[in-house]
Backbone:
């Protein structure tokens, strides 16, 4: 009889991690350190931007109407009325038939409504010949056209990019409210595990998962806290979990998550808290545990690295995004033609690693114990629980790693 009669659908597992995820407190960081962080509050423009109507070109401020019909053969001739100095207002308005030199960023003088690029003009005594007409507003940025005072420039939940940091600078946000990076404890369990620095003897494997999980966690704006290799010994396991729960905002345990008698993760979590889910209808990744110790979410991941990876991509990602307060973008997907039939068992969500090239998705069938398929693949296709598989030649959506 299956040890996993009570598996839950992936959707329920995801809903459960959403429910468990607590938002970590906010903190303030200097603007120079804000890139990549998640904004914890909406930011508003403290001033109108720009605060004055300005030129976006070096050239001549004109009345657009004065340039109508201007061309190389018959240029419009305008009287030059001096220069606008950067940051200074013109001392007098520009009258019809006149123009005024203006640098990029200069304040547009009264009486003008457009700027002719210097390249489209030629000096002629005290006059300027305009060889190309400009439309009303051309080469001009209007007063508060970019942002109006009080307007929300960036919303909470946004992961700040380099461009966003520039916008925060423009609105004077020197100290940026961000969510504190959640600390994610990582325990790798197994008597057979050895550190990467050791050469495995017969029966041993190097601890791959600590590194896979830590890298993923860092990528999702969380701080990985690794507790090293934990032996399959009840007292050691309990002590390691107790420490991690005391020091972190969530804990991820790799290995020992199945329902076999020797698998301890579920029992150890239950002893300190509660196991909410043990078994998810996902392949690879069925022996997944979702629980909590007090308010700290604790996830038990299957030991096979490929299974661990699928579960963190499909389920744990939601926990991390929720905790950072990040309005996480949907995963990047592409569509491609399936190169061969992919059978699937009804009632479970299958994630098939694929290699996508030139519009063709080639499935990389392999047991969840294989590492090479992870490296050869650049994404996965998801086969819904109700499907029995996908036929060769069908267009499929690939979730890119
Ligand atoms: P378990 O989930 O503990 O039953 O482990 C399933 C398989 O994954 C076993 O073959 C383990 O040796 C392997 N495994 C468990 N943990 C890791 C790890 N941290 N790195 C690499 N392989 C692992
Ligand atoms: Mg194990």
Residues:
């Amino acid at each position: 009889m299956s040890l996993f009669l009570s598996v839950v659908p992936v959707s329920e597992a995801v809903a459960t991690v959403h429910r468990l995820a607590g938002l970590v407190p906010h903190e303030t960081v200097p603007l120079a350190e804000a890139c990549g962080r998640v904004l914890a509050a909406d930011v508003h423009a403290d001033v109108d931007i720009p605060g004055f109507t300005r030129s976006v070109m070096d050239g001549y401020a004109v009345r657009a109407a004065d340039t109508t019909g201007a061309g190389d053969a018959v240029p419009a001739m305008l009287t030059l009325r001096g220069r606008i100095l950067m940051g200074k207002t013109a001392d007098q308005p520009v009258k019809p038939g006149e123009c005024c030199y203006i640098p990029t960023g200069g304040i547009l003088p009264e009486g003008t409504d457009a700027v002719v690029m210097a390249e489209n003009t030629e000096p002629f005594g005290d006059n300027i010949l305009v060889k190309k007409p400009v439309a009303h507003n051309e080469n001009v940025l209007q007063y508060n056209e970019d942002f109006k005072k009080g307007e929300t420039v960036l919303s909470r939940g946004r992961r700040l990019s380099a461009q966003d940091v520039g916008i925060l600078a423009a609105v004077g946000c020197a100290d940026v409210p961000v969510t504190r990076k959640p600390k994610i404890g990582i325990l790798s369990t197994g008597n057979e595990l050895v550190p990467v620095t050791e050469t495995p003897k017969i029966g041993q494997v190097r601890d791959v998962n600590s590194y896979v999980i830590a890298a993923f966690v860092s990528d999702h704006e969380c701080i990985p806290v690794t507790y090293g290799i934990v032996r399959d010994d009840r007292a050691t396991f309990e002590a390691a979990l107790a420490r991690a729960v005391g020091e972190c905002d969530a804990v991820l345990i790799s290995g020992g998550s199945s329902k076999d008698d020797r698998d301890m993760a579920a029992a150890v979590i239950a002893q300190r808290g509660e196991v909410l889910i043990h078994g998810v209808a996902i392949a690879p990744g069925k022996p997944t545990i979702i629980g909590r110790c007090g308010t700290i979410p604790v996830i038990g991941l299957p030991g096979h690295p490929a299974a661990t990876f699928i579960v963190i991509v499909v389920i744990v990602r939601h926990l991390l995004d929720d905790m950072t307060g990040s309005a996480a973008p949907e995963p990047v997907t592409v569509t491609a033609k399936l190169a061969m039939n992919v059978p699937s068992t009804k009632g479970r969500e299958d994630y098939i690693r694929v290699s996508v090239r030139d519009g063709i998705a080639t499935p990389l069938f392999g047991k969840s114990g294989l590492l090479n398929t992870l490296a050869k693949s650049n994404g996965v296709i998801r086969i819904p629980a109700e499907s029995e598989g996908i036929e060769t030649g069908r267009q499929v959506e690939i979730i890119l790693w």
User: Anything to note?
Assistant: Residues 273 and 293 are 4 Å apart (CA to CA). The chain has four domains: 10-24+181-324, 26-47+149-179, 54-141, 333-400. The domain at 54-141 is CATH 2.170.190.11 (Molybdopterin biosynthesis moeA protein; domain 3). Helices lie at 10-20, 162-170, 209-219, 234-247, 265-272, 305-324, 372-376.
